[in-house]
Design goal:
alpha+beta, 2 domains, 3-stranded antiparallel beta sheet
Length: 108
């Protein structure tokens, strides 16, 4: 990654960089989001190893990266953090498209 480092968001892992093109006399700011593949791989491993059961007797349903949460908001109008949107969250988690966010195999 080239360019001058501007900011790092520890919550999302996103890095912002400043770029200046001398010839065109223009600047740009780029955002490089975190790679979500490690989270998806972890979900798959946990799914086969534990089926979502936690040591305390609870059930870990899913791990949803912030990048996916923002995609849901933009594409589907679903806010994960809003309890009124839980029917939409359940619909998305039960869909084939987002099945690898799930850790257990029960239908919500």
């Amino acid at each position: 990654m080239s360019g001058l480092f501007l900011d790092f968001d520890p919550l999302t892992g996103t890095i912002e960089r400043f770029h200046f093109d001398e010839a065109a006399r223009k600047f740009t700011i780029t955002r490089h989001p975190r790679d979500v593949e490690p989270i998806i791989d972890r979900n798959k491993r946990l799914s086969f190893a534990t089926d979502g059961k936690t040591p305390g007797g609870g059930i870990h349903v899913a791990s949803i990266p912030i990048e996916v949460q923002m995609l849901w908001l933009q594409k589907h109008g679903v806010r994960l953090w809003d309890k009124n949107h839980w029917p939409g969250v359940k619909r998305l988690l039960n869909s084939d498209e987002y099945r690898y966010l799930r850790i257990n195999h029960m239908i919500l």
